[in-house]
Design a protein that fits this description.
Layout (H helix, E strand, L loop, with lengths): L26 E6 L2 E2 L22 H6 L5 E4 L15 E4 L6 H9 L3 E4 L5 E6 L2 E2 L3 E3 L4 E8 L4 E8 L2 E7 L11 E11 L6 E9 L3 E8 L23 E5 L3 E8 L11 E9 L4 E6 L2 E6 H6 L2 E4 L6 E5 L3 E2 L4 E8 L6 E10 L4 E10 L1
Parallel strand pairs: 1-3, 8-25
Antiparallel strand pairs: 1-2, 4-5, 5-25, 6-7, 6-9, 9-23, 10-11, 10-24, 12-17, 12-21, 12-22, 13-16, 13-18, 14-17, 15-16, 18-19, 20-21, 24-25
Length: about 375
């Protein structure tokens, strides 16, 4: 059983830690469409009609009470789209892609939570990996590796609910290599919130290679099931990649305009490129063609409206060089603080996408 939107607290459809059973609930939801339950002062507060976030319902309070659990996230998406981007995903370190292996990994707490972007995390204290328990009375080595989907903003190693080490993401460099490795996010949507738009797109590189494609697909941005529009088409799914090779990717998608200025209805792909700066990114969207030079995207984003102002639009985000989304760090924690110290890791990108690594417990 996975305790869900726990931050509301006892008696308010949140968690009551007095009744928590780690055997039945090896993992706890730290983030969903309701908001973040990590701590009462953290990002993504709860503004649902069910009420505000309370300290007694947070992950931080549960860890302070000595409870042991891993972190997961889930969308709670009432529009019924699996993996709805931006409202919670769970990453799992499994031996293989089978139900049994996934189940074993969740039981062992080898997992972590992200809001939407597939931020890759590795987190160790000495030889213990996230979710594990170990012992060590002296100095401890903390190691982490992060591979983001956008610019890394701040990384915080937390010990016993207090920041132990805070690192800010690297500043823009003076000179970039050429060719270089970078990520470019293609985001589409906007327009009339009551108009369904189908997108058929292709992205091609004039020179270079597409190393990876990360989908950031969204379902209907709805709060309750009866708020949803009727199914957009008979096609299933409503988004998908249809072809991909080392120089191009094709996809289809359906969007409506953003229902509120603070509620996103867009979808996106994140392309990781290895290419010279002179490379042109050639886009074809719904029969219209566009070209963007990588060197211009390194300077800043570009946007186009497909049918004029206030119609559906494309945003080609600023290109992010690899050194701004990759980080490795190792340092020593000189001494224990209590009988069992609890280490966690949280990561924030500049685009407000977050990740939380499951804890590591170290007994003195």
């Amino acid at each position: 059983m996975i305790p869900h939107h726990i931050g509301y607290g006892p008696g308010q459809r949140g968690i009551d830690w007095d009744h928590f059973d780690a055997h039945r609930s090896p993992v706890v939801e730290i983030f969903s469409g309701h908001g973040s339950s990590e701590r009462d002062g953290g990002p993504y507060p709860m503004y649902h009609t069910m009420g505000p976030r309370s300290h007694r319902g947070t992950v931080a309070h549960g860890l302070a009470l000595g409870k042991r659990f891993g972190f997961v996230a889930g969308t709670d998406h009432h529009g019924g789209y699996p993996g709805h981007y931006g409202e919670g995903r769970t990453a799992v370190y499994a031996q293989e892609l089978t139900r049994a292996s996934l189940w074993e990994a969740l039981r062992a707490r080898r997992c972590y939570a992200v809001t939407g972007d597939k931020i890759e995390l590795e987190f160790f204290v000495d030889d213990a990996f996230m979710g594990e328990e170990t012992a060590g009375s002296g100095r401890r080595e903390v190691r982490l590796g992060i591979r983001g989907s956008d610019v890394l903003d701040r990384i915080v190693v937390v010990k016993n609910n207090r920041p132990l080490r805070r690192v800010f993401g690297p500043a823009p460099g003076e000179k970039l290599p050429d060719p270089l490795q970078a990520k470019v996010r293609l985001e589409w949507g906007w327009g009339d919130k009551n108009e369904l738009v189908r997108w058929d797109g292709e992205a091609r590189l004039s020179v270079g290679e597409i190393l990876s494609v990360e989908p950031c697909f969204s379902g209907e941005p709805v709060l309750a099931p009866d708020d949803a529009h009727e199914a957009p088409t008979d096609e299933s799914p409503i988004h998908g990649l249809t072809a991909q090779d080392e120089r191009s990717v094709r996809w289809f998608s359906h969007t409506r305009g953003n229902p509120h200025p603070f509620l996103r209805g867009t979808s996106a792909l994140v392309l990781e490129l290895s290419a010279p700066q002179r490379t042109e990114l050639e886009l074809e969207l719904n029969g219209r063609q566009y070209r963007f030079r990588l060197e211009d995207l390194l300077e800043g984003s570009r946007s186009v409206f497909l049918r004029g102002w206030r119609s559906e639009a494309l945003l080609v985000h600023r290109a992010v060089p690899a050194y701004r989304y990759n980080l490795e760090l190792a340092f020593e924690d000189p001494e224990p603080e209590q009988e069992v110290d609890v280490y966690t890791l949280r990561v924030a990108q500049e685009n407000d996408q977050w990740a939380w690594a499951s804890p590591i417990w170290v007994a003195s």
